[in-house]
Amino acid sequence: MKPVVRPVMEADFTQWLPLWTGYNTFYKRTLPDEITRTTWARFLDPAEPVHALVAEQDGRLLGLTHYLFHRATATIEPNCYLSDLFTNQHARGKGIGRLLIEAVYEAARRAGCSRVYWQTHETNAVAQVLYNGIADRSGFIVYRKQLR
User: Fold this and answer.
1) What's the pLDDT at 61?
2) Homologous superfamily of 4-134 in CATH?
3) pTM for this prediction
């Protein structure tokens, strides 16, 4: 059966959680349970601008992507920030990441967004092979200041 990309449902939590944990482990971060539970609740709240899609095949979740819509000063239309993308080890190299990104592109089009953008760590060379084929590299450097 072919993989399907769809919005998360409440019943997906037990399969979504290992993917979320894998994503955070890849980026060497540990999040408090409160953040995970709040993030999950946001995905299920239609009033929230943050969304989650999963790739599913034969009842098994293979990957996830999270994205959000926001306003910007350089456009009238909203922008879409692809926040997280992860596939499990068995799904890698099978086009699941591309399917998830293309589904975000489609969701952004439906929402009237003028662009989708994301970032990845400079050491994530495998993902960059995919990204270089489906998007333009902006050349911007990201700065951040942790406030808490």
Assistant:
1) 98
2) Gcn5-related N-acetyltransferase (GNAT) (3.40.630.30)
3) 0.94
